[in-house]
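User: Round two. Same drill as before: sequence, then structure, for each protein.

Assistant: Same drill it is. First protein:
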Amino acid sequence: MRLRVVLLVVATSSLVLVSFLVPLALVLRTFAADRARSTATIQAQNLVPLVTTLDPGSLRQEIDQVNAENRSTPVTVFMPGGTELGPPAARTASVQLATNGRSFTAVTPAGANVLVSVQGLPAGTAVIQVFVPTAQLRRGVARAWLLLGGLGLGLLALSVLVADQLARSLIRPITNMARAADDLAAGDLTARAVVAGSPEVRRASAGLNRLAVRIGELLAHERETVADLSHRLRTPLTALRIDAESLRDDDEMARLSDDVNAVERTVSEIIREARRPTGGGSALCDAAEVVTERAMFWQPLAEDQDRPMTLEVAPGPVLVRISTEDLAACIDILLENVFSHTAEGLAFEIRLSRRAGGGAWLVVADDGPGFPDADPTQRGLSSGGSTGLGLDIARRIAEASGGTLTVGRSPSGGGSVTAGLGPPVQALDAGRRHRRARDRLHLRPRDGAPEYGPSEGTPWSLLGSSRVDR
């Protein structure tokens, strides 16, 4: 918009300057030509008394002296008997016309001939011719045009500066409002637009701020409502706990009590998640640590089902813009899909690598039947009898970090899910936690390479039924 305003002012100023300077330049050229012809006419008229009073010899001397003083405009006198005094010149039709008693100016391609008829001589009529060349007619015009051009460019530059300042004053409030809108779209509900600028922009900024406040109120009400509804589940859970403790079978009582405790933990997690504010900061975690810890959690189940499990984690901290809880939930969803929708004994692998622009790539692939043709990430759509929410939740977690989630096929023909995790906004020293998590694993490099210690910086793999040192 700023460029468009400047271009509009430049176009308007150019039209005004052209409509003003071009006629002025033409007037200056005409004025210069009229001045040169007027000077030549006065010069010729000053010679009229000399032509009528002096003898031919004295007149010749006077004319030679005049030509010596004004070489740019030569003077020639055509006497009645055919004699010419001064520089030789052709006796043109204009000169013949002037002998009839007319004084005028004849314009030629080379310049202008000022002809003055002198009557009253005994032998007839004499004609005084003053030749004004084209260079003399346009003397000073080029300089005047250059001054006009410089003035026009200066005025144009001044208009550009004024237009730029005007555009800045108009665009700055709009830019601030757009920046606040982008922050709100990114989840920062504390962003507010500066109410400044024209009345229309001030009104739009105030409306955006009211909208942001309203969104915050609605989200806060929604979070509190979810938390309250979840809290209501504690009453029936307490009744279940009392019923479980009243059982006489100790094993059954312990089993039911554990189930009740698991449900209570889930409810508490739902309440904490519902009360967790959105926006207001950037989450950050070490993806390598989270992936390693979740692999440790799922490793015993993989061993119980005879599933060869492969884990590859990029060396060093891999920082991503996502919270530890969300990334752990995303990994659990992808691994739970593997265990739920593939047969026991089928292998799967987990790979974590760095993205070129920051962040990480998380790939979970298996040797199962793969995904159907329909988009498995579509919310509520499942061909395996589940709720169809898992992959949609994983997709939203990946997109919230600034990345993507794609579904494809593994090299073995099974399913493959690739989650792109966005880079962190600010740096976080997660190297210590990453090394501590990797030290808890006793790992071997792939392809039968010799074993390395954690300090070697090579990718690690959990192959086959390799055990985890807890």
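Second protein:
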Amino acid sequence: MLYNMWHKEDVVLRSNNELQELCLSTILKDVYLFNNFKNYITEEFFSVDQYKIIYRALLYFYRKYQNMPQEKELVSVIYDICDPSVERVNIDSIKSCIDDLYNAPDYEEAYVMEKIETFIKTNNIYSTLKTYLPSVKNSEDHVIEELGNKLVEGLSVDFRKVDLFTLGDVSKLAGVRSEAIGSDDQSLVIKSAIDPINYNLLFKGFKPGDLVMMVAAPGVGKTTYMINEGFYASLQGFKVLHVFIGDMTNYDGFVKYASRISGITQNEIVEMNVAEQAELVRTHNYNGIFNRIDMLSYPASYLTVDNLLQEVSRASRYIGKKYNMIVVDYADNLVEEDIMMYKSGGDIYNMLSYMARSNQSVVIVGSQPKLTYWREEIIPKEGASESSKKQHVVDIMLTFGKPRQDAKYGTMNIAKVRRGNDGKLVRLGTDMGKVQMYSISEQDYLKLKSADE
């Protein structure tokens, strides 16, 4: 009976085209999901010829560069690995298909994971039946038993953590809460140095796994903001790794953090000798605040995002610390594996999100706005360079601008919040000499602005 059913034309056990499209379009753009599923999906899972070739190219690119390809990069790989005369597929039709996949709508992660699991299970069943059903017609008992075991095995695929929580089961509530945000005695939520940010976040601070992007023009206050967040996280007892990528050295980082912690200006600290600087650290190292901040520094265009992840992992193992906050200052100075490849902010941010989620760390990233917004005080969500790609990945997007570069005040836009309220404007005061950034009232903001005019 099974054998006859298998051969009916109206019975299709393979995944339909819509499901294939959803799965492929999702893993093309999400490195977290791709890494979860790549070892369970083969090229043969796809019945559409274009999808077979695209998935083969995706695997090839990732194995070579340890990164996710952008559209032009994927097309380039297909030209390299495919022979149109053998594949019998028109390259132009593949390019059109790739364009459709990259522009396909995004869905909630839980929904996508369920669909990809269905995709894998369906193909596992198909493969098993294709192998065993020809023998089943002979009614061989051992073959039928093997078929049953293989079908059970193929259906047992489950990538989601099954930890059923019934809302009324209050005995599990403490554990569920602790896993997500810590306990009342030891919270994992990191309060921002800027109180209005906390007010607008669901958990009143940064949650483990959050990717936070700070967008500001050069010289306006990106590093100042990130130094303040690193300082305040350490003040709360959290371990911080600040990675400088660009023209900042570890010594620059020391001067800035020492100034923020001590309240002594950067100029005064620079004029101190080594003994005086060491005494400053001993004097102001209250509750070990200096000891919880580590730094790494690299020149611009030196690290790929994959290199960065390796360096962070190596530092964590070497020091023996789990970093609660990782500051990347700043991601626009990262490069691709191959200088011939197109730079992709979307890919870089996918990998940074993967680092945040896998480490359960808050990752804060500095980025520049588009050139047209460099002189704007209020930078909208679309103001980030490659904004659509980055916006999709980040959990929180903050922008900051000033009426002019040397102004001592400006406006932060809480442009995107995945959990909480966005679209809020926050007035900030700055003291670059002491690396301080703090919220001010609307009244104080107007006074400063009036004084400037």
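The two ends are 87 Å apart (CA to CA).

User: Perfect.
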